[in-house]
Amino acid sequence: MKAIGLKEIERIFTVTEPLGLSREAVVIRLRTATPGALRILKDGKLEIVVDSAIDFEEWIKRLEPEIRRLLSPEPG
Length: 76
Known about the structure:
Elements: H1 6-16, E1 26-28, E2 37-40, E3 46-49, H2 56-71
Parallel strand pairs: 1-3
Antiparallel strand pairs: 2-3
Helix pairs in contact: 1-2
């Protein structure tokens, strides 16, 4: 998959919204990349780049734990 569409965007929002992330707080890149990426932008928004090397259904299963890991402060 080289680009994502509305169907995939809606699926991503079904993962991010229960985590308390509003749609305005999430930036979903329309182009996929290898590897994909999750990062916090300077403005505090979560940027999501879907990994083109992984089947979307497999990738979306990994999204919630990856977001939780990114947003969790490290103990220490």
